Amino acid sequence: MISLGILLFAAKIFAELFARIKLPVVLGELVAGIIVGPFALGGLVMFQDKPIVNLDETVRTIGEMSAVVILFIAGLEITPREFLRGGASAFTVGAIGVAVPFFLGYFVFLQFGLAALESMLIATALTATSIAISVQVLTELGRIRAKEARLIIGAAIVDDILAIAVLSVVTTMVQTGNVTPAITDIVFLILKILGIFAALLVGAIFLIPRLLHVERLWKSRGSIEGIATAAFFAAAGIAAFVGLSPIVGAFAVGMAIASTRVIHRIEEYVDKLQIIFAPLFFAIIGAQVDLRGVNADVLLIAGALIAVAIGSKMVGCGLPALLFLKDRNKSMKVGIGMISRGEVGLIVAGVGVSSGALTGNIYTAIIIMVAATTIITPIWLKSAYRKDPPEPAAPEQQKTEE
C-alpha cells in the first residue's frame, strides 16, 4: 500500500511538472517511477527490512491490471466495423512491424558474436509495441480518432498477437534447447493464436451489446459500469488463460461496447478510472528500470538495440503505412507510435536470464532499450504533432460557429 501511494503521488507530481514545461505527461509519470523506484530513491529508505518502494507481486499485478484498463479504454475508440474496415492495413503494418525487427535483430546480433538462441531472444524482445504509451499520448493530444491513430492501435493489437506467438515459439526453444523447430509447428501456433483472438472478438461483439441493452435488468446505480468492468476483466483473464496477452481481451470488449447505446455513459466512467490507473501503470513500468549494472559493454549493446528498435519500426511500420495512408507525415507518425517496447521485452528478458540463455549484460541492455524507447516515443510523437497545422473544425462545430 505504501509503495502504491508513493508511486501514484510521485507520478501526479511529475505529471504536473512535465505538463507545465510542455512535455508529455506520460513521460513525467515514467520518470517519476524511475526516480522513486526501488533501484533509486525508493531503495534508500527501508521499511520492515525491505525498500519502501517494493515491486512485489501485488504491485506488479496492479500494473498489469492498469494496462488492461488502458487498452479497454483504447478499444472504446474503435467500433468493430471500423476495425474490420482497417483490417488489411492493420494486419499488414502489424505483421511487417513484427517481421522486420525480428529478422534484423537476429542477424545484427549474430554479427556481435552471440549464440543463435541468445540472438533469437533479443530479436523477440524487439518485436512487440507497448501500445499503452502511444494511446496515452494520442489521447492527451486529442488525436485518438485520427486515421493514423486508428492504424497505430489496430496494427499494435496485431503486432501484440503475433509477438505473443513468436514469444511462445522462442520460449519453447529455450525450454527444449531446439533452435530449429519444424516450420509447420510455427505456422500452426501462429494460426491458433490468431484464431483465438478472432473467437474472443466475435464472442464479445455478440454477447456484450445484448447484455448491456437489457435495460429492465440494470436499474440500480452503477450496474452498467460494473457489468462493463466485469466483462473486460473476464475477457482479459480468458485471453491470458489461452495464451494471449490480457490486453487483447480487454481491447476486444472495448470495441464491442463502442457500438452500443451506453457508450457515452461508459466513457464518462472510464475517464475517472484513467486518472488513477494510467499514472500507476507508467510509474510501475519506470520503477522496474535498474541502471546499476551499466558498463561499457552494456552501453554498446544497448546502443545497438535502441538503434535497431527505432529503425526497424520506422521501416517495418512507417513504410507499409504509406501504402494505406498516402501521406508521408501520417505514415511517419505510425512508425513513431510503434517504437515503444514494453511488457513483451521485459518478459523475454526475464525468461532468458532465468533460464541461463541470456547473460547479465544482455539482460541489462534489453531493460535499457525498453526504458529508452518508452521515453523517446512520447517526446517524438508529441513533437511530430506540434509541427502539424491546426485541424479543421468538425461539421457540427462549423454550423454552431456560423
Automatic annotation (TrEMBL):
<feature type="transmembrane region" description="Helical">
    <location>
        <begin position="59"/>
        <end position="76"/>
    </location>
</feature>
<keyword id="KW-0812">Transmembrane</keyword>
<feature type="transmembrane region" description="Helical">
    <location>
        <begin position="151"/>
        <end position="174"/>
    </location>
</feature>
<dbReference type="GO" id="GO:0006814">
    <property type="term" value="P:sodium ion transport"/>
</dbReference>
<feature type="transmembrane region" description="Helical">
    <location>
        <begin position="88"/>
        <end position="109"/>
    </location>
</feature>
<dbReference type="Pfam" id="PF00999">
    <property type="entry name" value="Na_H_Exchanger"/>
</dbReference>
<feature type="domain" description="Cation/H+ exchanger transmembrane">
    <location>
        <begin position="9"/>
        <end position="382"/>
    </location>
</feature>
<protein>
    <submittedName>
        <fullName>Kef-type K+ transport system, membrane component</fullName>
    </submittedName>
</protein>
<feature type="transmembrane region" description="Helical">
    <location>
        <begin position="269"/>
        <end position="287"/>
    </location>
</feature>
<feature type="transmembrane region" description="Helical">
    <location>
        <begin position="336"/>
        <end position="356"/>
    </location>
</feature>
<feature type="transmembrane region" description="Helical">
    <location>
        <begin position="25"/>
        <end position="47"/>
    </location>
</feature>
<keyword id="KW-0739">Sodium transport</keyword>
<feature type="transmembrane region" description="Helical">
    <location>
        <begin position="362"/>
        <end position="381"/>
    </location>
</feature>
<keyword id="KW-1133">Transmembrane helix</keyword>
<keyword id="KW-0915">Sodium</keyword>
<keyword id="KW-0050">Antiport</keyword>
<feature type="transmembrane region" description="Helical">
    <location>
        <begin position="299"/>
        <end position="324"/>
    </location>
</feature>
<dbReference type="InterPro" id="IPR006153">
    <property type="entry name" value="Cation/H_exchanger_TM"/>
</dbReference>
<feature type="transmembrane region" description="Helical">
    <location>
        <begin position="121"/>
        <end position="139"/>
    </location>
</feature>
<keyword id="KW-0406">Ion transport</keyword>
<dbReference type="GO" id="GO:0015297">
    <property type="term" value="F:antiporter activity"/>
</dbReference>
<feature type="transmembrane region" description="Helical">
    <location>
        <begin position="186"/>
        <end position="208"/>
    </location>
</feature>
<feature type="transmembrane region" description="Helical">
    <location>
        <begin position="228"/>
        <end position="257"/>
    </location>
</feature>
<dbReference type="GO" id="GO:1902600">
    <property type="term" value="P:proton transmembrane transport"/>
</dbReference>
<dbReference type="InterPro" id="IPR038770">
    <property type="entry name" value="Na+/solute_symporter_sf"/>
</dbReference>
<keyword id="KW-0472">Membrane</keyword>
<dbReference type="GO" id="GO:0016020">
    <property type="term" value="C:membrane"/>
</dbReference>
<keyword id="KW-0813">Transport</keyword>
